[in-house]
Amino acid sequence: MTNDHEFFLDPSRCIGCQACVQACGECQTHRGVPMIHLDYVDRTAGVQSAPVVCMHCEDPTCARVCPADAIKQDDRGVVLSAAKPRCVACSNCVLACPFGVPKMQTRFDLMMKCDLCYDRTSAGKKPMCATVCPSGALFFGPRDYVEKYRREKPVNEFQFGRQTVRTKVNVMTAPEKDVLSLDIACFPPSETPAQGPLSSARPGAPDAAEAAVWEEFHFLKTEQT
Asked: Does the predicted model carry a pTM greater than 0.70?
């Protein structure tokens, strides 16, 4: 396996099987703790899940905010878990990461996160999660293969407001996209005269989500008043 292999994440292919989570914990450097987790895309609308791995930013915010200089980046661009002798368990990195990746493992008093299975990838092997994913939501291989056989386009540049973040990990998205905008202001429910402050409706959200979640809440609120 050559050094031209990259990590590709395609949330639309995730089937929620959790095989990646189980395999991640078996990586020798993870001490039995999975460094990957699944998030629901829209819990009110369905059960679609998406794997969350460290994006390995070129300029990692987690390392910049660490007061103990415990988070290091190797020469391949892999951002490692915090070093145990240095980590003070302050959770600065947990709060600062724009992708919400680092997790504080309280039983170890240590921040641990996906390190791209560096013990495996540095030896020419695939990360554990990519070896077991049955749907191709997690793929480790050459970019030209992905560009040839996948309809989606790999993107590794993300826009958070005015901040542009470039990453080692690619996310598959629509072919016309060059940069993915992840402005949090786009996600909270909007408040308009025709749409109350508790509405969950937003562009693309099914009407079923509105009826399933908020209709009952409005009814209870009316009964109480």
From this structure: yes
